């Protein structure tokens, strides 16, 4: 049975991220301008014909506005969509779908990609042609084990990973430049990310530029491998601000040492393993 109320909660979450969007589908359009209505129940575009044979060219369709993939969405209607001129939401609830292969054709997302509330999702693999996306937001996917499959994405404005209880591994080695990275969150004076299986951040071997980095409340995290990658690649520009809070197994002295090497001036590091008790180390809650 489909869960109720998820789309409403995602709207609230998006506002807090200060990202402007509108819930619900738009219209689909081919690259020659033929448009059709959408299926408002499923949130997916009705595929128009794009050639004299009555069939669209592979990966040639353009979806105007936001595209929402839900529990009841017919994946066949997504088969030839190459560009989403808005945001792409994957909100499949309890649908038994282990990866994102049904979005294989998508190469461009003008807005953000939001993957949240997918009980059956085990991997983000499948979007092998995706090259451009404004933001990647992945959260509250209870059985997601690996974030991978964005091998053509070299840069994006924002990457957020949070509340993925089974997440074990991140493979985003193609990423070179990200304006803001956030992994987890904390609440009050303790961890709250509910990412109990994520022990390392080793899948960022290509990263060379980050402006803002926030690592918070990750209950099992023991390695700051992302900082190691920045040093190894000769960071293109210094981190402007870094936050490491309430990662109870991550050594605080090691964090400071690596930030010193990278020349990070603006930092908030507290509540981690071996750190002194700081009464001012406090989190407002979920991002």
Summarize the model shown:
This protein has 287 residues and is mainly β. It has one domain: Ribonuclease Inhibitor (Leucine-rich repeat, LRR (right-handed beta-alpha superhelix)), CATH 3.80.10.
- How would a crystallographer describe the biggest sheet? 13 strands, mixed
Low-confidence stretches: 1-53
Give the strand tally. Answer: 20
Element order: H for helix, E for strand? HEEEEEEEEEEEEEEEEEHEHEE
Count of runs of 4 or more consecutive helical residues: 3
The domain tally reads 1
Helix content: 10-25%
What's the architecture in CATH terms? Alpha-Beta Horseshoe
Average the pLDDT over all residues and give the rounded result: 85
Anisotropy-based shape: globular
The CATH class is identified as Alpha Beta
Work out the radius of gyration.
20 Å
Global structural class:
mainly beta
- Distance separating the two termini: 29 Å
CATH topology group: Leucine-rich repeat, LRR (right-handed beta-alpha superhelix)
Q: In percent, how much strand structure appears in the residues?
A: 25-35%
Kindly report the name of the CATH homologous superfamily.
Ribonuclease Inhibitor
